[in-house]
Each structure stands twice: as C-alpha cells, then as structure tokens.
Amino acid sequence: MNPSDTNFPAPERTHLRLGFVALSDAAPLAVAALRDLGARHGITIELCRQPSWAAVRDKLLSGEIDAAHALYGLVYGVQLGIGGPQADMAVLMVLNRNGQAITLSRPLADAMERGASVKEALHSLGRTPVIAQTFPTGTHAMWLYYWLAAHGVHPLRDVESIVIPPPRMADALVEGALDGFCAGEPWHAVAEARGAGKTVAYTSEIWPDHPEKVLACRRDFAALYPATARALVRTMLDACAWLDASAHRAEIAQALSSPALLGVPGALIEPRLAASDGGDARALPVRFFDDGAVNYPRVSDGLWFITQYRRWGMLDADIDDAAVATSVNQTALYRDAAQAAGIATPGERRAATFCDGRVWDGGDAARYLAGFEMRA
User: Fold this and answer.
1) Is 358 within a domain?
2) Which compartments does it reside in (predicted)?
3) Which of 279, 288, 342, 355 is exposed most, by the fewest CB atoms within 10 A?
C-alpha cells in the first residue's frame, strides 16, 4: 500500500469487479487492471465487460459488479427512478471529459457539407429520421437532444430516438436501420471506416469539456466500504494521470484493441483517443486527468442532467434537485482521496457556454430551465 494511505483504514474489500462497456473511454479501468495500479492501494481489479448500459445498471443493482465505468446520466436516471428501478446511487469521480460525437448517414452528412442545415438535411429524407443513443437518461441522449434542439429540430417530435448498445451502432448504420447516432468512440471511427456515415458534430462542441463517464456504485457500497471506495478512487486517479502522456494514449489504444476489451483495430481507436486535437480540429481532446481538473464530481454537473430531464418531460416530481445531486456526488470521499494523492480540488462552480449560447454555472437551475423555448 502507498505510504500516503497509512492515515486511512485498510480497504474492507480487496478484490473488486468493475463493469465497463466497449468504449475508448473505458481506458482508465483498462490501465488500472493491466498495470495492477490497485496494488499500491490494497486492492485488485477484475474487469467485467458488459454488452449494454442496461446490463451495467442491472449488475450494479444486483451486486454482480461492485462499481463501473458508467454514463453520468445512467446514475442519475436510476437515482430518480426514470432510468430503471429506483436505487440510491453514488458518483465517486469523473473518469473523462469530451470524447463523444454525433454521426449521420453519408447522404445526410453530404447534404450538410453542401450547405444544408441540420433541419433541412433531416427533412430531406421525407420521413421521420431514426437516430440512436445509448440509454434513455444517458449522456448521449442528452447531448443528442440538446444538439437537435439547438438546430431547431424537436428531439421528441421530429425524430425517432431509439436505444442501441454502443458496439451495435456502426452495424445498424451500415444495415440502414439508422440515419445517425450519438455515442462514444471508437464507433464513430468504425462507421466512417466502413463508409456508412460521417461525424457531423463532437459533443465538446455542444458543451466544451463536458463531464462524460463516471466511476459509479450503489450508495450503500460506498457507505459500507468507505476505505475500499477511497482506494478505488485513488487507483483510478493514478490511471487517469498515467493517461495524460501522449505515448501512453497510443499504448493503451493498442491494448484496448484486444477482443476482451473493445475488439476494434488499434488504428481506429488511436486517432480519436491519442491525437492532441481529438483527431479533428473541431473537437476538444478527450481528457482524463489534467492534474485532477477532470475528476472532481461537481454537484452542479449532476444538477444539469436533472434540468434536462425536466426540460424533456422525463421528470416532473416535486423534489429538491440540488439535494439529490448533493447526495449522489460523493464530493467528501473524493476530496479525501485526492488530498491523500496531493491532487488539488477545483472549485464547485464552473461556467460553461453551450452551442446555443446559453450559459450554465449551476447557480439558478429553475431560471436556467425556464429559459428554454424548445421543450417537451
């Protein structure tokens, strides 16, 4: 165990099963397992690949996995009882920012390249477009809905939004079952390589440096095994820090190509994971650490997802939204782990300007929500 951990109790659980979905931003979990980074904090890690986000949810709730690489919005959907059975959930830390995209079929993307607006391109189909995301309350649904609305397309009325697991996205686009999708990498790179679609927007263009995947667990796990949860955060912070080096990004891209992880050629993973510009000048790079600036689980980030659930009619319960976010995001546990690692904790508030010019800083959620003209 790391000497800096000697002021903390030893982990109550020493072997942890961590779920993940085949995505490039599962890199921190892969690094932690492949490099045995948990050893210095008294834990071992077993990776458990899952076929979908619904499977991640179900196995977290059943206890078959202890924690997971999870969509920020999955955690909040379960907490609120709108993304499956209600259960009290915990966000231990943010694993990455940016790194997602929206891909449309080649005919639609080509129309946009010729100058058509998003609305005009979709209307040119002469039918309701079918666009997939990965989980009803997940990040990709929220990025897709926000982007469509910003371009004058109502995401609940003008398109058919369906759920498909990320590894199925490119296949579905090739088969003509979809007109587009919003998901993580490397599935956009795969779709382009297969000639089925083209990336038309990056999620960092929607919300620059947005939070994406989180380290999630049930709240009772964090309460029963606080030293274990702290050791797990320490391990993932080490993994995220390791990923900051560009040479390490290229190394993990090759490791992720294995059938046990992503099963996609490294040549399709590396450009959008390792390139300093994310593979495209329009995109901000996927960020894993940046001296800890990435990882703090701000309550305001969680609260933003609740505003979007209300915007799109997914949530109408009279509850204290800020209190929910405060209970989910384990800021005190994270601070303990970060302090032990000598990592600074950033401020609670962070202002961000979205693609429609609106600013979110977490200060007045009700006023922010009321300002949207397009909603359910």
Assistant:
1) yes
2) Endomembrane system
3) 342
Q: Are residues 170 and 54 in the same domain?
A: no
pTM, full prediction: 0.97
Do 89 and 106 sit in the same domain of this protein?
no
| 260-265, long-range: CB < 8 A, 24+ apart | 260/47, 260/49, 261/22, 261/26, 261/30, 261/47, 261/49, 262/22, 262/23, 262/24, 262/26, 262/186, 263/22, 264/22, 264/186, 264/190
- Does 227 share its domain with 333? yes
Mean pLDDT for the chain overall: 96
d(CA 87, CA 316): 18
Q: Averaged over 57-62, what is the pLDDT?
A: 98
Rounded alpha-carbon distances, angstroms, from residue 285 to 41, 103, 118, 275: 29, 17, 24, 7
Determine whether 137 is exposed, middle or buried from the number of CB atoms within 10 Å of its CB (0-12, 13-18, 19+).
buried
CB–CB of 132/172 below 8 Å? yes
CATH number at residue 181: 3.40.190.10
In this structure, the answer to whether residues 360 and 222 fall within a common structural domain is yes
The full length of the chain comes to 376
Report whether 166 contacts 184 (CB < 8 A).
Answer: yes
Residues 74 and 171 in one domain: no
- Give residue 6's pLDDT: 57
Mean pLDDT to the nearest integer, 228-252: 96
- Among 176, 206, 236, the domain-final residue is 206
The pLDDT value recorded for residue 147 is 98
Question: Where among 206, 230, 262 does a domain terminate?
Answer: 206
- Given the structure tokens 């009321």, which residue do they identify? 370
237 & 329 share domain: yes
User: Worst-scoring range by mean pLDDT, 97-106, 243-252, 268-277?
Assistant: 268-277
